[in-house]
Design a protein that fits this description.
Blueprint: H1 5-25, H2 30-44, H3 50-54, H4 58-74, H5 86-110, H6 116-125, H7 131-141, H8 145-178, H9 182-211, H10 219-237, H11 241-254, H12 259-285, H13 289-294, H14 298-319, H15 327-335, H16 341-356, H17 365-390, E1 400-404, H18 408-419, E2 424-428, H19 435-439, E3 444-446, H20 454-457, E4 463-468, H21 473-487, E5 492-494, H22 506-511, E6 515-516, H23 524-532, E7 536-541, H24 548-554, E8 560-565, E9 571-573, E10 587-592, H25 596-617
Parallel strand pairs: 1-2, 1-4, 2-3, 4-5, 5-6
Antiparallel strand pairs: 7-10, 8-9, 8-10
Helix pairs in contact: 1-2, 1-12, 2-12, 2-17, 4-10, 4-11, 4-12, 5-6, 5-8, 5-14, 6-8, 6-16, 7-8, 7-17, 8-9, 8-11, 8-16, 9-10, 9-11, 10-11, 14-15, 14-17, 16-17
Domain Cation/H+ exchanger transmembrane: 22-390
Domain RCK N-terminal: 401-482
Keywords: Antiport, Cell membrane, Ion transport, Membrane, Transmembrane, Transmembrane helix, Transport
């Protein structure tokens, strides 16, 4: 056991972030890796037990972290996004949640052997999925927009509802036990107050941002301070209503469409990711060996199986009858329902209060909850990608390229990518500049890529690379800087700056925008001039007989290397600072000078043009 709390905090952070990296590197479900890391550090190796070591600070730390995570998730609940999905989402979070509560409670009573009181309390809690587990799965699986949005909205909205249902069931127990109606009235009053408090906090923060009462450097700290205050005030009045309050606050801010909130989104996402990583490790590391052994109880196994294969699918199918969801979408949504941090934290709370009220069967709640959490995390984490692909709801395929700026060069580049079976989308705010792409059958999007509306109408899931290739250097840099959080610095590219005489732009290239494409001096003007003068996009496959060294030796001195498509399907754009290399099976694409036949035709056409001009003059 590590005695130093500082060392334990270091280890928790290292395991959390390290788990996220391992999950990204080997394409594994992050929550599964985090759970395993926590179990190894806690009950298996005995390095730590955060619940014991942190003492009274443990639960407040977990609660505040969950509040921040839920608030960050609710900031994505813009009503514009749910356009066309309003009915299915509403049915799932109301009728579907109610069915899941009833069916889950019946399973807890008849299969897990819990008393009715404990069964209905824990049954309400088990309807939750939550952003802590759903959002990482959605990032991993690359679902199509419709099922992804449904799962996201359900997870974030039902998270506080599930906790409140558990509180409501507990208050019903107290009412039936003590015959005191004030407990129920207090519950409804506290819930209404929590929603009102969240709305007031959201409106207040939004108004202060819009009127400039908070300086830019204080906006992020101010938001987090208000979130913590909002959660704490509501939670002190009645346990778990704080989750409802921060959800209401996040949704209020999301639908005010304040630019400052959008600017902070990536910072808040980073904080949320860090919290998810560390809190999940802390929770699993706090489990005991006895809790893990109890998981293999036949009643618990039977209950978990019922929740996975009967309760969830049945509640989704019944609640979405009459909606426009396809059978495939119902199957996917009916299967994916991983439980996470909220289920573990709230179950721990109710286990203690129910035991205090004399319900001895509540002693198995922690084991029961962890069994459901770990099983659903593993089962859904490893199956979501496979199932989505089988049902045709996955965006899986070779990584695509998003190109900003319509021109002769980008049209040729997009067509070449398309011929190599690489998904490509050409965007421009000018209908005229997209005319070449439309005439050649290239997929295009007419609209301003930096506009807020683009986020709702353009699905960027299939694209892993961004190429900003307009004639404006500053605009290219702005596009790359804006989308670096989505695509990453290594996958964001822009054309070489048009370095006019007297401009000192050397430092600008390295500090803002994306990575500079191709060779030095490959500006918009230069590339388009070459295409207009007959340069062609040439594809060459590297083989054992014709190696990359042979290719470089025979390449025309005026040719320009553009990109390579690896045998794995990955695209690698050539940049001035990279070391050029290619292996067997790679396809090299370059911009080559026109052939001699083409030059002869051009000379002939130029001669005819001059003859016509001379005839007019004479």
């Amino acid at each position: 056991m590590i005695d130093s709390l500082l060392l334990q905090l270091m280890l928790v952070g290292f395991l959390g972030v390290g788990s996220q990296w391992i999950a990204w590197r080997f394409r594994l479900p992050a929550i599964v890796v985090m759970s395993i890391a926590g179990l190894l550090a806690g009950p298996v190796l005995g390095l730590m037990n955060p619940e014991q070591d942190f003492g009274e600070l443990y639960k407040p730390i977990i609660s505040l972290a969950v509040a921040v995570i839920l608030f960050e998730g609710s900031l994505n609940l813009d009503m514009k996004e749910v356009k066309g999905l309003g009915r299915p989402v509403f049915r799932i979070v109301t009728f579907g949640a109610f069915l899941s509560w009833i069916l889950g409670s019946l399973a807890a009573h008849y299969v897990a052997g819990l008393s009715w009181a404990v069964a209905f309390t824990i049954g309400g809690l088990f309807i939750v999925t939550g952003p802590t587990v759903i959002l990482p799965l959605l990032r991993q699986a690359k679902l199509k927009p419709r099922p992804a949005k449904i799962l996201k909205w359900e997870g974030i909205i039902v998270d506080p509802i599930g906790a409140l249902l558990a509180v409501f069931a507990f208050e019903i127990i107290l009412f039936l036990t003590n015959n005191d109606p004030s407990t129920l009235l207090m519950f409804f009053a506290a819930s209404a107050f929590a929603v009102f408090l969240g709305w007031v906090c959201g409106k207040g923060v939004g108004w202060m941002f819009e009127t400039g009462y908070i300086p830019e450097f204080l906006k992020s700290p101010a938001v987090f301070a208000v979130v913590i205050a909002c959660f704490t005030i509501a939670d002190e009045i009645m346990h778990e209503t704080g989750l409802l309050s921060v959800t209401a606050m996040g949704m209020t801010l999301a639908n005010m469409h304040i630019s400052s909130i959008a600017d902070m989104r990536h910072f808040k996402e980073n904080i949320s990711l860090l919290l998810i990583s560390t809190i999940f490790v802390m929770l699993t590391a706090s489990l005991t060996v006895d809790t893990l052994v109890e998981i293999f109880n036949i009643q618990i196994i039977g209950f978990v199986a019922l929740m996975l294969f009967i309760v969830r699918p049945l509640s989704i199918f019944l609640s979405t009858m009459g909606t426009d969801l396809s059978k495939s979408e119902k199957l996917l949504v009916g299967w994916i329902a991983p439980r996470g941090i909220v289920a573990l934290t709230v179950a721990s709370y109710f286990a203690s209060v129910l035991l205090e009220e004399g319900f001895e069967d509540a002693s198995i709640l922690i084991s029961l909850t962890f069994a459901l959490v770990f099983t659903t995390v593993v089962a859904h984490g490893f199956s979501i990608g496979w199932l989505a692909k089988k049902l045709g709801l996955s965006m899986e395929g070779p990584p695509g390229v998003l190109i900003a700026g319509g021109s002769a060069f980008t049209t040729g580049l997009a067509k070449t990518l398309e011929e190599l079976k690489i998904p490509v989308l050409l965007t421009d705010s000018s209908w005229q500049r997209l005319s070449r792409a439309r005439s050649r059958g290239i997929e295009s999007y007419h609209g301003e890529i930096l506009s807020e509306q683009t986020e709702y109408y353009l699905d960027m899931t299939p694209y892993e690379y961004l190429v900003a290739a307009t004639e404006l250097d500053s605009y290219n840099a702005l596009v790359c800087t804006t989308f670096v959080p989505e695509f990453g610095r290594n996958n964001s590219f822009q054309l070489s700056l048009s370095n006019k005489e007297g401009d000192d732009l050397e430092d600008l290239v390295h500090t803002i925008g994306g990575r500079v494409l191709f060779e030095e001096g490959a500006s918009w003007e230069e590339l388009n001039a070459r295409v207009e003068n007959g340069y062609v996009f040439r594809k060459t496959t590297i083989t054992e007989q014709y190696t990359f060294q042979d290719y470089m030796k025979n390449m025309d001195q005026h040719a320009m290397l553009l990109f390579s498509k690896r045998a794995s399907g990955k695209v690698e754009f050539f940049t001035p600072e990279m070391e050029y290399k290619a292996e067997n099976g790679d396809v090299i694409v370059s911009l080559m000078p026109p052939s001699k036949e083409f030059e002869k035709i051009q000379e002939k056409l130029e001669g005819q043009r001059k003859d016509k001009e001379n005839q007019k003059k004479s």
